[in-house]
Amino acid sequence: MVSCVGHSSLRRLRRRGGLARLLEAPEVASLVTRSPMENLHKLLLAGAVLGAGAGVGTALFALVTPGEERKQAMLKEMPEQDPQRRDEAARTKQLLLATLQEAAATQENVAWRKNWMNGGGGRSA
C-alpha cells in the first residue's frame, strides 16, 4: 500500500509532539469531541435513511414482481412447454448422439461433412 505521508514526515511529526499535538488542533478537535447526543442523533439519522432506502427498494420489488396468474401464463408460454418443440428437441438430441457414436466408431472426421444426416460425403482424415 502506498502512503501519502512519507517516512520523513512521520519522523517530523514524532519530534514535534506526535499524534497528541495533532489531535489538539481546532479543526481536528471538532471532529473528535462530540457529545453523545450528537452521536446518537447521527446514528438514528443514518438508520432512518438506510431504512427508508430499504423500504423503497422492497416496495419497488413488490410492485415489479408478477402475480401468480401472470407467472402461470409465462410458464405456459415457454417453448419447453410446447409438445412440438419438445419432440423437435428430442429428435435433435437423438441425431447428435448418433453422430457422436458414429464419430467414435470411425476414423473419419465427421465435422467435415456437408450433410451430417448422411454417412460419408466429406473429406477423410
From TrEMBL:
Alphabetical GO biological process terms: ATP biosynthetic process; mitochondrial electron transport, ubiquinol to cytochrome c; mitochondrial respiratory chain complex III assembly
Q: Which UniProt keywords apply?
A: ATP synthesis, Membrane, Mitochondrion, Mitochondrion inner membrane, Transmembrane, Transmembrane helix
InterPro entries from the xrefs?
A: UQCC3
One GO cellular component this record assigns the protein to is: mitochondrial inner membrane
Primary site of residence: mitochondrion
Localization per Swiss-Prot or TrEMBL: Mitochondrion inner membrane
The membrane-spanning stretches of this chain are 43-64
Membrane topology type: Single-pass membrane protein
What biological function has been recorded for the protein in this entry?
Required for the assembly of the ubiquinol-cytochrome c reductase complex (mitochondrial respiratory chain complex III or cytochrome b-c1 complex), mediating cytochrome b recruitment and probably stabilization within the complex. Thereby, plays an important role in ATP production by mitochondria. Cardiolipin-binding protein, it may also control the cardiolipin composition of mitochondria membranes and their morphology.
Family per similarity comment:
Belongs to the UQCC3 family.
**What is the name of this protein?**
Ubiquinol-cytochrome-c reductase complex assembly factor 3
Q: Give the species this sequence originates from.
A: Cervus elaphus hippelaphus
